[in-house]
Amino acid sequence: xxxxxxxxxxxxxxxxxxxxxxxxxxxxxxxxxxxxxxxxxxxxxxxxxxxxxxxxxxxxxxxxxxxxxxxxxxxxxxxxxxxxxxxxxxxxxxxxxxxxxxxxxxxxxxxxxxxxxxxxxxxxxxxxxxxxxxxxxxxxxxxxxxxxxxxxxxxxxxxxxxxxxxxxxxxxxxxxxxxxxxxxxxxxxxxxxxxxxxxxxxxxxxxxxxxxxxx
Length: 215
What we know:
This protein is of the alpha+beta class. The chain folds into 2 domains: about 1-85, Jelly Rolls (Sandwich), CATH 2.60.120; about 100-195, Alpha-Beta Plaits, CATH 3.30.70. The chain is built from 6 helices and 13 strands. The protein has helices at about 90-95, 95-100, 120-135, 165-170, 175-180, 180-185, and strands spanning about 1-5, 10-15, 20-30, 30-35, 40, 45-50, 55-60, 65-75, 85, 105-115, 140-145, 150-160, 185-195. The strands form 3 sheets. Strands 5-4-7-2-9 form a 5-stranded antiparallel β-sheet, with no helix packed on it. Strands 1-8-3-6 form a 4-stranded antiparallel β-sheet, with no helix packed on it. The protein has a 4-stranded antiparallel β-sheet with strand order 11-12-10-13.
């Protein structure tokens, strides 16, 4: 629970909450809440509800400063998962993100420790996960990496069309059941997610590849 103060013309960038629903109560000012492209006017003394997983953006469309109280629940399993931005501040006006082919896609990094005696079991479990997720809506590619200086340190990197697509899969019962064998093989999990702002490709790639074109 907290408060948000916006000056005239300011806005909160588009984002979503993968684990919590949000209630907004506007104390002062004139606001516009955009939810999945649909716009709602929220005046002083009015409240509005945002369901779990819905992309939304809050803007002060009035001539005075606004004060809003918000409440999000239930809590996410990790603070980094509570609020996921789906745009970059200023990108809406400048169009920077739209000009880059990779902008707006998502990178999900999942690190863990795997003991040597569980390595084969871990890789076998991952094989089942990666072939299943390959057919999932929004999934683009997946990589599994091992640190050369620490064989017990592993990293799974996946790319998605959006973080919303990733969290839809991550919260599904199918996903929870599928990754259960893999979870039994690792310790010290560390999760990070990012929205791509821009991507630069090399110009000396494989023969026949057009320079600057994302494969």
